[in-house]
Design a protein that fits this description.
The chain is built from two helices and no strands. By secondary structure, it is mostly helical. The longest helix has 39 residues. It is rod-shaped and about 55 Å long. It starts with a helix and ends in a 5-residue tail after the last helix. Helix content is 89%, strand content 0%.
Length: 73
């Protein structure tokens, strides 16, 4: 039973790590869109994309921190 529990923990850590990577990548994409909007339209459209980019990045960072945990050698 202990090995199955460890298997589940490792599986969920991998899932959280992948979700973190995807959300950080998504935040970089949104950030690029926000700077493109700043060049073309101005501040209003920039901040409508910039704030979600920061929140998405923090969410991805949260999932990356969760996935670290204790590692055995």
């Amino acid at each position: 039973m202990s090995s199955y529990r460890e298997f589940l923990i490792l599986r969920y850590k991998a899932i959280f790590r992948n979700v973190g990577n995807i959300t950080i990548g998504l935040s970089l994409l949104i950030l690029a869109i926000s700077f493109f909007a700043l060049i073309n339209d101005g501040n209003k459209l920039f901040f409508s994309f910039f704030i979600p980019a920061i929140l998405t990045f923090l969410t991805g960072l949260f999932f990356r921190i969760i996935s670290r945990g204790e590692r055995k050698n």
